[in-house]
Every structure is written in structure tokens, then in C-alpha cells.
Request: fold
Amino acid sequence: VPVLVADLLEKSNTLGLKNNDGAFYLSIKVPKNIKPGNYRSTIQLIVKNKILSPKLIWIIEVLPRKLPDLAKSDFYLNIWQNPYAVSNYYHVKPWSALHFKLLKPVMKLLEDAGQKCITASFFWNTFNVQSEGLKNAMIITRRSCTGTWGYDYSHFDAWIQFMLNLGIKHKIVLFGLDPWYPNYWYWDNNMQQEVKKSDLPGT
Reply:
């Protein structure tokens, strides 16, 4: 299964075992209504109907304890999100229907864990050190031929609404109004091109 987040546990979807030991990451979801006790099962490596390992026995002990529903509790989780990580990983167009489809299982994990904040950016990512292309920005800045400024919030609105629909709605955290690196991108209607401007705050 391909990794869905920016910080990959393993960059490859395949693992060669010819002369190497390999690590496998196994996720097990325990139902909330399961009875306490020891649950025993086996795992075995089979490739193209060829058995490559003996059956490995593992036991899960389920304790008589239940975690609260974190999504509905007061537990406050704020993990920054970067939706571009998913579009880049899968090579899909940012903010397309497919992009949001791929984002859903990733952000649902956050919602289930108690995520309360939506991360959004004004001038690119949080620290303004990379650009995804002006047309894909959450908020697109434009300068008219007369020198006035305008802002397109279409991507921003779609992202925020997507997260609200998942149930993450405590607050919106907006980064990039004053980037660490004072670089700003906008579309200049007079020049008909993207412009990168570097200015310190107050200038």
C-alpha cells in the first residue's frame, strides 16, 4: 500500500529480500465493541502463490479500556497539513476532484485523532521556501493594469470547505502573510506573467 503522507516510512512500494532483511509496517484497527482478551492470528509472506516465509504467530491483548471518541472530545490536536504533498506524491493536479479524493483518507485519520485546526497558506507553504506554481496557490494574488490588487480564494474556499465537511472546524490557522523569507508571488496583468517580489514588511 503506498504511503499517503509526506514523511515516508519507506520510499519504495516494493522491498527486495534476496540478500537483505526487510522491515514491514502493519496497522491493525481494533473494533470498539470487541471483547477484552487475547486474540491470536498468523501472518505469512506469499508472492505469486509461492510461500516465502513460515507462518508467524502474533497475539494482540485487548484490555478492558476504551479511548474516548477524540474527534468529539476536548482533546486538542493541531498537526499542520500540506495538501500539496498528496498531489505531488500521486502526480495529480492540485485541487482537482481526484486530489480531494486522495486527500480524504489522509485527513480522516487526523479528524479521528482529534485534529481541531485547518492549516492554510497565503504565500505558498508555511515557510515560503518552495513554490507549487502560482496557479495552484491557495490564494492567488493578482495586480491589475491600474496597479490595484485582487485575490482569488477559489482554492482556499474549496480546501476549507473540504476540511469542514470532514468535521475539522475548530479554527483556521493561516500562514504566510509575512513569510520567513520575504518572497511574494503574484500575477501581473500588465506584464502577463508571474512576478516574484522580495520586500521586507513595512516597505
